[in-house]
Amino acid sequence: MSLISEIMAHNAAFVENKEYESFRTSKFPDKKMVILACMDTRLVELLPKAMNLKNGDAKIIKNAGAIVSHPFGSIMRSILVAVYEMNAKEAIVVGHHDCGMAALRYDQILEKMRTRGITEDVLNTLSNSGIQLKPWLTGFDTVREGVENSVRMIKNHPLLPKDVVVHGLIIHPETGKLEIVVDGYSMSGR
């Protein structure tokens, strides 16, 4: 059975047995927060449990490394939508120890692309179009640096209201222990 077939079979039973009922909530985050976290598989259930979140408590956005790489990209747009349309009052960036983005190197991923069939013609076309793959496909030196940069990008965004508090945390992917990297309250004077 294919992966999508397994998912669809499970889903049919899930809906038929009304297992969705325990997850019902509104679209507005009860704790009035938006979280940007890494997409690491170890955090799928661990992160909400470690932060004492239940379904409906927060808007959670995930990407590789919990990175805001562009001030007008989809991550920042999602954060702004959470603030303006979903009434989020605080934003939390959560990076994690042992993050793959800390090891991501342009030359290595480029070689993997070539091995998987991406041609030099495609790479040259992108380069000649002004698309700079190197910074886009390069990680960060430390998780702390990644979190601090994302917090700074969010907090200094010209469209973010000044009263939105932005925090930065690092979670241990095995134990769930959280450490504060940026205390948004101290930055906002609260």
Automatic annotation (TrEMBL):
Its cofactor is Zn(2+). It is an enzyme of class 4 (lyase). InterPro entries: Carbonic_anhydrase (IPR001765), Carbonic_anhydrase_sf (IPR036874). Its EC number is 4.2.1.1. The keyword Zinc applies. Belongs to the beta-class carbonic anhydrase family. This is carbonic anhydrase. It comes from Ferviditalea candida.
